[in-house]
Amino acid sequence: MKYLLIGMLLLAGCAPTLREEPLIGRAFTPTTKVEILDALPEDRRFVEIAAITAQADQESVDAIVDRAMATGADAVVFGPPYRYGDVAILFAGGNIGGHLAGSINTVPLTRIHARLIKYLP
């Protein structure tokens, strides 16, 4: 049983899950680089292509940047991380006197929002 739990946890951490919400129905040519911003630009006109929500970790940030380039975005605007819940992780130990020994740890889960934008001429 403990190997099943460990395997499930390892599989869950393999690839970031991005929840993308397209904001326009127009397609753009993919780009080779994007700007990383922490606020919407005030000095340039733009259109928002999509909103993405993902786990707040480096793999998700990299996946969002890759997705932005694939959609033709010129910039990614990252919002601050926010806590959305907790996950309980079970650590199975062994059988001691007929009882399963182990522990439960609670880990906070954080997510980030990102907006993919395309600059207008």
What features would you describe in this structure?
Residues 1-12 have low confidence and may be disordered. Strands 1, 2, 3, 4, 5 and 6 form a 6-stranded mixed β-sheet that branches. It is elongated, with a radius of gyration of 20 Å. The protein is built from 2 helices and 6 strands; from the N terminus they run H-E-E-E-H-E-E-E. The chain has 121 residues and is an alpha+beta fold. This is Lipoprotein. It comes from Methylocaldum szegediense.
In short:
This is Lipoprotein. The protein is of the alpha+beta class and 121 residues long.
Kindly state the mean pLDDT as a whole number?
Answer: 79
Low-pLDDT regions: 1-12
Name the shape in a single word: elongated
What's the β-strand tally? Answer: 6
User: What is the gyration radius calculated from CA atoms?
Assistant: 20 Å
Structural class: alpha+beta
* Distance, first to last CA: 58 Å
Percent of residues in beta strands: over 45%
Q: Number of helical runs?
A: 2
Percent helix, as a range, is: 10-25%
Q: What letter string, H or E per element, gives the SSE order?
A: HEEEHEEE
Largest sheet geometry: 6 strands, mixed
Organism: Methylocaldum szegediense
Protein name: Lipoprotein
